[in-house]
Amino acid sequence: MRNRQRGMTRRRFLATAAATGAVTLLGPGHRPVLAQGAKPTITYWNGLTGADGKVMDDLIGRFTKETGIQIEQQRIVWPDLYAKLQVSVPAGEGPDIALIHTVEIPHFAADGILEVLDDGVVAGKGFRGEDYLQSPWNGGTF
């Protein structure tokens, strides 16, 4: 077992989100254009409330503090979130990322809502499966 001291990195933030049943959603062609040197603002939709919402608020705060990247979080009740994603993503108006339940992955994949992140794309961004728990890493496979 490895014993590494880690802060809130992008990888850790993503792994934590994945562990709660998340999958990244990016509409096809949805790529922000930034001025050189500008920090991005990430739009993030989820249906988290109560204690789960508080944990996510804390994670987002830590992520922003350590990276300088702002996250614009929008909480939407789950049924409305799913309906909104079905309309907004194909129109190019969806969030940069969204949290959905893993049971919804096949449905969203069949509708073309999920952006495929194959091994080549993921490796090109520096993500490696061995850096994550196996269950959340494989949970987004469809």
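[next item in queue]
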Amino acid sequence: MSFNKFIISVLMISACFNSNAQEIVDKKNTVYFDFTALMTPPNRLSIGYIRNFGTNYFAGIELGHSIDKNNGRNNGYSKDYQLFAYRLQVGYNFNPEKRFQNYVSVDFQQIHHTETLQDDYFRSAELSTDENTVYFSYDEIEYKREKMTFNVNYGFFAHFNRAKTFGINPSVGLGLKVVDVTFSNPVNLNIDDNELKFWDFGSRYRKEGQVTTANANIQVKFFYKF
């Protein structure tokens, strides 16, 4: 190969790398919509923003809010559903130059959820004098759930176009969650001694008190980069 051809080849390769680097640098901002939060009850509308730092690192924030006050609990009567959530995330993108980009991240999420429940029961956080579980039935009661999660996630950005401006971002994660549920202002509260409730593992709406357990995080997001 002649020297001139070698120089031309080097310049062409350099131009390609510069073009890819410029493309990565230019698209430092990402906005997204979390499809999973909208479809999972009690649902909410969640949107987020991600900012790239350098080539591989990124950080983001996500905000979620309930849409309809009547669109909360789906397995019983309720009203006045309100939910606000935020999520903070930092991560590392292994191959930002590709159309299919793998990453790992850690995130912290907090959820504040209130709702008025009707015609149901809950398991009290306090035991009876003989150390048995106590259930209460009610006509109406105020429900509040505070939840915090910490997750380690794996996900990928799958771009729909060569310019890498929009696509889909599935992710899965594992971590811990701390949930604190309280009930207040009951109407017609009574002790419910129905033994069939022994087999009822309950739901988030039927367990009073604070608990720390493992957490699974699954998200499917549609994004736009600019």
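[queue empty]
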